[in-house]
Amino acid sequence: MPEHPVHVILAAEGVSEVSVPGTLRVFTPVQRLTRAGAVMLVAILLAGSLLPIPIIHLIGPPALLVAGIVLAVRQLRAGVRLAPMHVSCPKCGYRNRIGGGQGWHNVNHPMERHCDSCRRILELRVETDRLPPPAP
Ligand SMILES: [Zn+2]
Q1: Among residues 37, 50, 84, 136, which is most buried (max CB within 10 A)?
Q2: Residue 10 C-alpha to ligand 1 middle, in angstroms?
Q3: What is the pLDDT of residue 131?
Q4: pTM of the full predicted structure?
Q5: Cβ(39)–Cβ(70) under 8 Å?
Q6: Nearest Cα residue to 14 out of 90, 95, 110, 97
Q7: What confidence score (pLDDT) does residue 103 get?
Q8: Which has the closest alpha carbon to 127: 114, 111, 115?
Q9: CA of 96 to the centre of ligand 1 (A)
Q10: Which residues of the chain have pLDDT under 70?
């Protein structure tokens, strides 16, 4: 899994932005396919486990299969993931947890997020000299 050093920037209107060094992990196509397959396999196993339960077997398995397909497609699209880190809110100073999770399609454009404490809208940017190309 290739890793790139980046600067993670949280910005808000009227205050100076906060920049913290971070690590951006780029998924290879094989890793993306493996992650999507694992998600779909878990969804199929959970759906199969609900089949013997009366009434639940009418709604549970189809819902789990649809959710598995949606999550598997998201895993296929996620090309990069920021390593888990903490960045202080530029407004209130609360240390927001950023990164980890399913990942993003690409990080070449600013993303909007809310502060975990003050709920203000913050702009999240990931900057580096050499960003990986967007996932196909
Ligand atoms: Zn805040």
Answers
A1: 50
A2: 10
A3: 52
A4: 0.71
A5: no
A6: 90
A7: 85
A8: 111
A9: 8
A10: 1, 129-136
